[in-house]
């Protein structure tokens, strides 16, 4: 009986192609919009998480200069000299719960290899930056603590730098000039990509901190300090310890403003992830409204169909069709319309998501969960909005139905 009803439903769709297409249009748009918008939301979430991966194991970042007051502009890190490598060492030695600390001194320099040159960011740092920033080597090795102590002229370069200076040639062991100083390339980083702050670790060079301070400008300060915690549960307490330690080291009087800024990035990362998850859910809910509109369209068409086929219903009842038989037939017809529209909508949504991703304007992620959810909702909508027309048809009295003109 069920499959017979399915065949009758498909025959009805084929007999009224335009009406069927217009009825399914709401479901197609609804399901397609849900899949496309949710894929955009998930793609945005993935891109944010990829960018935040730059922080690696970084939980706290300390920058020189006081935090900007509302409506004001914070001083550039390089224009305020308040943090030193000794501050970083003190944090590592004296603050409980700190696993690793990496001070950084950055600057823009021209790199030269033979007849090629490239302008990029050079970052002086310590070995702990490898773990904190989750750096991976494609070839060669990172510099050591001994290199830092000896102010060794060794450098680790990113993929973009390697491609532009060396092409297909292996950079490891080659000499490059940074500014006016010769360095030996000890390693090449694996591709890392864009950072949360808009930088690019592929287009960067890492050298020992002491080397950068002594041989690239004679600077004694650092631009920032990265800190990695052993236990995130005491992160707020650790942040307070760092603040108190630096205030004491910088001899700041009570009531005097901090000359540094401590940022809890672990909490920020969670807030950003929660925001992107909320955005994905919001986009899905907005698109789901069109599914509701599509369901109302199905109910309207099914009511029209019941009215048009009143005499047919009367004949079937006169021939012995029961309440359940009529109910099943019209419910199946509503389900066929909604499921067919849902399947076409899935195809349209997936194609739209791939089309948007191919333009490069947005990043999309196609996953089975929203597809299955959209299909399931279309099934439920067909069932829910088909009940009233089906019940109305099943309750028709045979005599009244046969008399209907």
UniProtKB/TrEMBL annotation:
Keywords, sorted A to Z: ATP-binding, Cell membrane, Hydrolase, Membrane, Nucleotide-binding, Transmembrane, Transmembrane helix
Coiled-coil spans in chain: none
UniProt domain MacB-like periplasmic core: residue ranges: 21-245
GO MF entries: ATP binding; hydrolase activity; transmembrane transporter activity
Transmembrane segments: 20-40, 281-306, 326-357, 369-388
Subcellular location: Cell membrane
Membrane-related topology note: Multi-pass membrane protein
Pfam families, sorted: FtsX (PF02687), MacB_PCD (PF12704)
EC numbers, comma separated: 3.6.3.-
Any single GO CC term annotated in Swiss-Prot or TrEMBL for this entry: plasma membrane
Domain ABC3 transporter permease C-terminal: 287-394
Family of the protein in this entry: Belongs to the ABC-4 integral membrane protein family.
Protein name (Swiss-Prot/TrEMBL): Macrolide export ATP-binding/permease protein MacB
Organism: Sporomusa ovata
Lineage: Bacteria, Bacillati, Bacillota, Negativicutes, Selenomonadales
């Amino acid at each position: 009986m069920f499959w017979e009803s399915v065949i009758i439903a498909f025959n009805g769709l084929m007999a009224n192609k335009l009406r069927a297409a217009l009825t399914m249009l709401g479901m197609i748009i609804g399901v397609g919009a849900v899949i496309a918008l949710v894929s955009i939301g998930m793609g945005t979430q993935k891109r944010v998480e990829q960018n935040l991966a730059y922080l690696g194991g970084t939980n706290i970042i300390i920058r020189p200069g006081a935090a900007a007051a509302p409506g004001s502009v914070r001083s550039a890190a390089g224009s305020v000299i308040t943090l030193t490598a000794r501050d970083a060492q003190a944090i590592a030695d004296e603050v409980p719960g700190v696993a690793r600390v990496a001070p950084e001194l950055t600057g823009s320099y021209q790199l030269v290899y033979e007849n090629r040159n490239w302008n990029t960011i050079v970052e002086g740092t310590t070995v702990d930056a490898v773990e904190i920033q989750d750096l991976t080597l494609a070839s060669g090795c990172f510099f050591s603590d001994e290199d830092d102590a000896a102010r060794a002229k060794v450098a680790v370069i990113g993929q973009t730098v390697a491609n532009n200076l060396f092409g297909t040639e292996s950079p490891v062991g080659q000499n490059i000039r940074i500014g006016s100083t010769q360095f030996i390339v000890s390693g090449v980083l694996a591709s890392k990509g864009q950072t949360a702050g808009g930088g690019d670790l592929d287009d960067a060079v890492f050298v020992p901190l002491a080397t950068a301070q002594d041989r690239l400008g004679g600077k004694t300060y650092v631009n920032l300090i990265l800190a990695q915690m052993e236990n995130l549960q005491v992160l707020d307490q650790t942040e307070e310890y760092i603040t108190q330690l630096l205030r004491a080291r910088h001899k700041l009087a009570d009531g005097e403003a901090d000359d540094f800024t401590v940022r809890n990035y672990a909490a920020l990362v969670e807030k950003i992830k929660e925001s992107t998850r909320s955005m994905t859910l919001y986009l899905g809910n907005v698109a789901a409204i069109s599914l509701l509109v599509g369901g109302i369209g199905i109910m309207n068409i099914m009511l029209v169909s019941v009215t048009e086929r009143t005499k047919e219903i009367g004949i079937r009842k006169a021939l012995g069709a029961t309440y359940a038989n009529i109910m099943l037939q019209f419910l199946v017809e509503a389900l066929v319309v909604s499921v067919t529209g849902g399947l076409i909508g899935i195809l349209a949504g997936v194609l739209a998501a791939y089309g948007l991703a191919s333009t490069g304007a947005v990043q999309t992620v196609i996953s089975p969960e929203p597809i299955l959810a959209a299909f399931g909702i279309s099934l439920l909508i067909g069932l829910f909005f088909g009940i009233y027309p089906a019940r109305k048809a099943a309750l028709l009295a045979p005599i009244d139905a046969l008399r209907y003109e």
